[in-house]
């Protein structure tokens, strides 16, 4: 009597969709090869596989451009090569650079002369030999040429000449039309964007260079799965044995596939990935008390819902569950069922036929 009361009490506490019991005798279970097992808690679970694309973080991507117009004489590196900061990437023959150097040397000479005149006039003014107006005129000339010289010097630095090159130019007064383009940081050449012999203008792209650690994984997440993710959650690339953390959950829904962009950052193992590569990713789901790991055959589908069959003394009761993840041959479900509840794990097709056939 106690056993019967316990079964009835358990039956009334289940979130049953179909109130009727699906009757199955012991001999019928054996004939249909129906097996049952108790529910096992899922300590950890992963989502189904989702498409992701590897990309370079914006702050780590740089386009190397030509600082002056000219002719590409030599390209010293190619796509895929690793480079270090300051390494020569290309040589450009630039007539504009010659004109700028000539202007710099001329301005330097005029500046030195103006400074000498200003220093002399200042001394003469202190001695009361010349009027203050003459001092003001020489000062204005000196300051104007100093500004001009600073402007040209800055333009030469933007053209790729460092302080040592400028000093050599001032001392030797030898013009050089060769412009050497160097790497701005340690990285990898992603793309070569010109060829030797091309005539280029200022700001034309030469190379695309990037730092490849860390990398981003950009995942288009279906709207219905957003409830299962949060910032900091682990993202796994099973084929590469690589994992990272979610850093951004987008706010805009993409109109084409009604998904939201979720971005993860990969540090360890980033060298196994390539920018532009498409990969399959999984999300590590937060385990809950009512999450269970069950064989795939234990879950059946009807009218857009998922069910498991809870074993009773004289049959089975269909109980709606929610699929939240999957692993090899295993599904992770969320269900309002007590731990160790017996469910059918084999022969569920026969139970489903009996259930739907009786409706």
Structure description:
There is one protein chain. With 359 residues, the chain is of the alpha+beta class. Among the domains are: 11-44 and 288-357, conserved putative lor/sdh protein from methanococcus maripaludis s2 fold, CATH 2.40.420.20; 50-56 and 212-285, Beta Barrel (Elongation Factor Tu (Ef-tu), domain 3), CATH 2.40.30.170; 98-157, Helix Hairpins. Helix content is 27%, strand content 37%. The protein has helices at 2-13, 26-31, 95-126, 132-158, 163-172, 348-357, and strands spanning 22-23, 35-38, 40-41, 45-46, 50-55, 61-65, 70-75, 82-83, 88-93, 178-182, 187-192, 199-200, 205-210, 215-222, 234-237, 242-254, 259-266, 278-285, 291-295, 300-302, 305-312, 315-327, 330-334, 342-346. Strand 16 (242-254) and strand 17 form a beta hairpin. Helix 3 (95-126) runs antiparallel to helix 4. It is rod-shaped.
Shape: rod-shaped
Q: What's the SSE pattern?
A: HEHEEEEEEEEHHHEEEEEEEEEEEEEEEH
- The fold-level CATH name of the domain at 11-44 and 288-357 is conserved putative lor/sdh protein from methanococcus maripaludis s2 fold
Helical amount: 25-40%
Largest sheet: 7 strands, antiparallel
Q: How many E strands?
A: 24
Instruction: Bin the strand percentage.
Output: 35-45%
CATH architecture of the domain at 11-44 and 288-357: Beta Barrel
| Class of secondary structure makeup | alpha+beta
Distance between the termini: 30 Å
The whole-number mean of residue pLDDT values reads: 88
Contiguous low-pLDDT stretches (5 residues minimum) are: 1-18
Q: Provide the CATH top-level class of the domain at 11-44 and 288-357.
A: Mainly Beta
Q: Total helix count?
A: 6
Radius of gyration: 38 Å
